[in-house]
Write a structure and sequence with these properties.
Blueprint: H1 10-15, E1 19-23, E2 29-32, H2 34-40, H3 44-47, H4 61-72, E3 76-83, E4 91-99, E5 104-110, H5 118-149, H6 153-177, E6 186-188, H7 190-204, E7 209-213, E8 221-223, H8 225-241, E9 246-258, E10 261-272, H9 300-310, E11 314-320, E12 323-331
Length: 340
């Protein structure tokens, strides 16, 4: 206690460049400093009295983490969360929730640059590529032998699928071991890639329900079809390994501010009803060698995000109504070539 009575912290909060807000136990914003208002693009006074969810309507994880910090009485952090308190004014912030005797303190600052993790990622991926070259050659040779001996069309189709995928992965490992900056761009039909993903997942798990929820008006994108398919396969197989019985493949157009300018984006979602991502891994989910499974390599999501960024896009994870959802955003560019 201050000798002259309780200290009014409000003037101090207003002077901080860091975005700060005090929330009551109902997760309503009761005090918001100008720094937070500037970060989210909404006047601080307009946020007072609003529920926390108004900062990120499409990111339920924001409210979930705040509630967990209160219930468990411990500090929680989340990095790179997409906050969009005003239409078309999305920003990525690193957030910290600190429980108080009465309510919760929220601190926010611009997300740390993602490029910092690139050197570690590339080194890990090259090591992975080196280790899998020989097993891939063995898989490819076995598939060729099977193809020569099989007569039934369905069995031949499966052997051809194995051969095709082994060849594609072998090409990917060579890229990982060689120059990583070289893409083979062409006009890519995202729905064609998603249909191929559905076929591959169906071949692995006959009881898996794959639901297509496409926006047929989406244009093609410029990109490397093999790398984009690898990204989608990593997401789909993660869902299968998490025990999913149903996967939804969804596409939508999206407008927003990313990378310093307003533009249109193509949004691809891979949503599943599996076990989900352990809370302890959420902040480091896309780092290499981080896995929620004892037998996992921890490279699938790291590679997926790197491929997204190679294409000028981004990959993020969110929870929605108890489901796990990975969201891929790619810049919308009209291509002149015939989609692959």
């Amino acid at each position: 206690m201050h000798p002259h009575g309780p200290i009014d912290a409000a003037p101090l909060l207003d002077q901080l460049a860091t975005g700060v807000a005090w929330l009551d136990e109902g997760l309503v914003l009761r005090r918001v400093n100008p720094g937070l208002g500037e970060l989210v693009g909404v006047g601080a006074a307009r946020l007072v009295g609003k529920p926390l969810g108004v900062l990120a309507p499409a990111e339920p994880v924001l409210v979930e983490l705040a509630r967990r910090a209160l219930d468990e009485r411990r500090l929680l952090r989340v990095r790179g969360l997409a906050v969009c308190a005003a239409p078309g004014a999305e920003v990525r912030l690193d957030l910290c929730f600190n429980p108080l005797p009465q309510g919760l303190l929220l601190e926010a600052q611009p997300a740390a640059p993602a490029q910092a993790e690139a050197p570690r990622l590339s080194e890990s991926l090259r090591g992975f590529a080196h280790e899998v070259r020989n097993p891939l050659a063995g898989v490819s040779g076995a598939a060729q032998l099977l193809l020569r001996k099989l007569d039934e069309p369905a069995q031949r189709a499966l052997a051809e699928l194995i051969l095709t995928e082994a060849g594609r992965l072998a090409a990917l490992t060579e890229r990982l071991l060689g120059a990583r900056g070289t893409l083979v761009p062409a006009s890519v039909n995202l729905h064609g890639l998603l249909d191929r993903l559905a076929a591959l997942l169906g071949a692995e798990r006959a009881d898996l329900a794959v639901v297509r929820d496409y926006d047929p008006s989406l244009p093609a994108v410029r990109g490397d079809a093999d790398r984009l398919l690898q990204l989608l396969l990593n997401l789909g197989r993660n869902a299968v390994e998490a025990g999913a019985s149903r996967i939804v493949l969804r596409t939508r157009a999206e407008a927003g501010v990313r990378g310093g300018g307003a533009r249109r984006w193509l949004r691809v979602e891979v949503e599943d009803d599996g076990r989900g991502v352990p809370a302890a891994l959420e902040a480091t989910l896309f780092l290499p060698l981080v896995s929620g499974r004892a037998e996992g390599s921890g490279l699938g999501l790291a590679l997926a995000r790197e491929i997204a960024r190679e294409h000028g896009g981004e990959l993020e994870h969110l929870r929605r109504n108890g489901l796990t959802c990975f969201v891929l955003r790619l810049p919308s560019e009209t291509a002149d070539e015939t989609p692959r």
